[in-house]
Amino acid sequence: MIDQGHIAALRTILGDKGLVAEGPDMAAYQTGARYDEGRAAIILRPQTTQEVSAAVAYCVKNGIALVPQSGNTGLVSGSTPDATGAQAVLSLDRMTQRFELDLDNRSLRVDAGFRLSDVNRKLEKHGLFFPIDLGADPRLGGMLATNTGGSRFLKYGDVRRNTLGIEVVLADDEGTILDLTSDLRKNNTGIDWKHAFIGTSGAFGIITECVLNLEALPKQTATAYLVPSSSAHVMPLLRAMEERLGAYLSAFEGISRNSIVAALDHVPSLKNPFQGGNVPDYVILAEISRTWTPREGEQSLDAVLETVLAEIWETEDAPLADAFVGPAHEMWALRHALSEGVKHSGKLIAFDLSFRRGDIMAFCDRMKAEMPEAFPDVTICDFGHIGDGGVHFNLVVPKDSASASDKTFEQRLRDWMFAIAVRDFNGSFSAEHAIGRKNQAYYDLYTQQKIKDMAQGLKAITSPGALGTVCFG
User: Fold this and answer.
1) Domain with 70 in it: what CATH number?
2) Confidence (pLDDT) at 298
3) Are residues 322 and 422 in the same domain?
4) Alpha carbon distances (Å) from 107 to 163, 251, 443
5) Quick check: is 453 in a domain?
């Protein structure tokens, strides 16, 4: 699907290691993390911003459509090519050269191809980390392009909050390099243009470098599984924890029984922490943390957590029915096993939704009441970041069900679900996954026309070439 002359020219720009045109190595770039598979014309693997610029400029001048790809861990078909074989994938996987740590500024200038785990491994010896906690292990460029949040959003915020600057290549005839790599935390000298490229799925440009805010690694943590008295008591429990713990509270993760059972079934090494093995209908994983080493005479965090939970237990109409304080590594191991456990329990249709905090349990309750009638084959396996209003509302269909092979089933399910989430609850149909081909129709449906017109104008100014899988206009 691509002329050999173009392949030769791009090979000259990128070198032999920078281009894959055929063979088994293509598969990893064409297959996504969740039932997502396309066909690429060619894979471009630049190593520097300058190589990205040259390759992008060549592709734009010659009408070659580009799909930027980072860690390829996305779940909405935002980083994989379509089935036409006409799109070139531009991967950041070789962009791992620059790693410049500024301890005084508590910031890091780094190439966008580094994986999150590699960054935090390098930072650990300095007592620092990039505070976005995810179940997957994405590359930084994709994290910025989709504005990921994670399990500790409650304390640290999302990627946007923790990005000081970026370098970005525009999809124009010159492959313009836009230097927005300020490492200042305060700079009000005009429009903060980096935000046009964070969370917009690579539609306006390819992020090649970033300047990140870093945080001190916690040196003390305490965790507990909390069983709320009912779904209506989840928010009162969160408010009670926030009132008593303040900035100590770093996570408040809600997990349904079905999700826990799926994880325990899939990972036999996980411990079932519940008495008699009886998993409650709904569980909260709460974490508190400090960044300093324990001081003599200071109350331990385990003791702090136990004291707070006892206070909450004794309140009128107590929102807490039970609690288990335990080792952080064991409790988080279960939380991080949820995605894979749910994925292996059947055909998974994943939703990433967000609501006002006070609406999240009401939405979940409504789904549990109406789903059995509307879609009887579906099992709800929800979990998510209750502290920030986010929920991974995963729906599982038995693999031998007719619905699992029905190509129209997922579309009907998404249409029904998003109508309730967006129209009835004023929620978002994409809390963290951003926009990919799977969410394009809902962006088109639920976005005000004036906003689409403005986005189209920005696209024409920044990257008029064919870039990405999303149309914001």
Assistant:
1) 3.30.43.10
2) 95
3) no
4) 9, 23, 34
5) no
Query: Where is the domain boundary, 79, 94, 109?
Result: 94
pLDDT at 443: 97
Q: Do 322 and 403 share a domain, yes or no? A: no
- 309 and 370 part of one domain: no
Is 127 part of a structural domain of the chain? Answer: no
Using 70 as the pLDDT threshold, list the residues of the chain that sit under it: none
* Alpha carbons 455 and 459: distance in angstroms, whole number: 6
Bridge partners (DSSP) listed for residue 353? 391
How many structural domains does the chain have? 3
Write out the residue range of the structural domain in which residue 36 sits. 4-94
pLDDT at 215: 98
3-state secondary structure of 459: helix
Residue 320 resides in a domain: yes
Q: How far is CA 247 from CA 55, 254, 328, in A?
A: 46, 19, 18
**Residue 457 burial by CB count (10 A; 0-12/13-18/19+): exposed, middle or buried?**
exposed
Torsion, Cα 389 200 95 336, to 10 degrees, reads 20
Check residue 34 and give its pLDDT. 75
Instruction: Report how far apart the first and last C-alpha atoms of the chain are (Å, whole number).
Output: 27
Q: Indicate whether 229 and 324 sit together in one domain.
A: yes
Write down the mean pLDDT value for the chain. 95
Q: How far is the C-alpha of 133 from the C-alpha of 287, rounded, in Å?
A: 13
Question: Rounded to an integer, what distance in angstroms lies between the CA atom of residue 404 and that of residue 62?
Answer: 41
- Predicted local distance difference test score (pLDDT) of residue 20: 97
Residue 128 CA to residue 110 CA, distance in Å, equals 15
